[in-house]
Design a protein that fits this description.
It contains 3 helices and 8 strands, in the order βαβββαββαββ. With 159 residues, it is an alpha+beta fold. The radius of gyration is 15 Å and the shape is globular.
């Protein structure tokens, strides 16, 4: 059994963004047809290029402002979608497409300081997440990021 759980963006947070059409930094949210696969940070599913409309905005996955805070662009579905629910395994559609979704995992301690980074490469991301939590007891959570674009995909909590 996996020793982690996946934490997508919550529908409550996203509702605030959709209602105000402004991100937490005061920038306008941009709606556009999907030109890439994404993924959506709520459903953690790839977009259908040219079919789905998506919202682009700046997001920080951190609770505390410090040197490791890495705000950046993310996409969500413009339509209402359900939060990713199979939280005890990494999203299979992202995991299976290593070319479109090259992944890095970054571990943070309780003080939100970076403790470890790993490129997933050809490794099994579920196994690597388990290994990192086993090897680094000081890691409170991981962030999965696109290893090329560096954009945040989801939070991964120890359980």
């Amino acid at each position: 059994m996996n020793n982690f759980k996946i934490v997508p963006l919550s529908k409550a947070f996203v509702q605030k963004i959709k209602t105000t059409m402004t991100d937490d930094f005061g920038n306008p949210v941009i709606e556009q047809p999907a030109t890439g696969l994404g993924p959506c940070r709520i459903s953690l599913k790839p977009f259908n290029k040219g079919v789905d409309n998506r919202l682009l905005f700046k997001h920080s996955p951190f609770e505390v402002e410090n040197a490791y805070n890495q705000p950046g662009p993310i996409f969500i579905h413009a339509a209402d979608v359900e939060e990713y629910s199979d939280i005890f395994r990494f999203p299979p559609e992202i995991k299976a497409n290593k070319q479109s979704f090259p992944l890095s995992l970054i571990g943070y301690n309780k003080d939100q300081m970076m403790a470890v980074t790993r490129l997933v490469g050809d490794a099994d991301v579920d196994e690597l997440i388990n290994e990192l939590f086993d090897q680094y007891p000081d890691i409170e959570y991981l962030h999965a990021r696109n290893a090329q674009a560096c954009c945040f995909i989801c939070k991964i909590e120890r359980r």
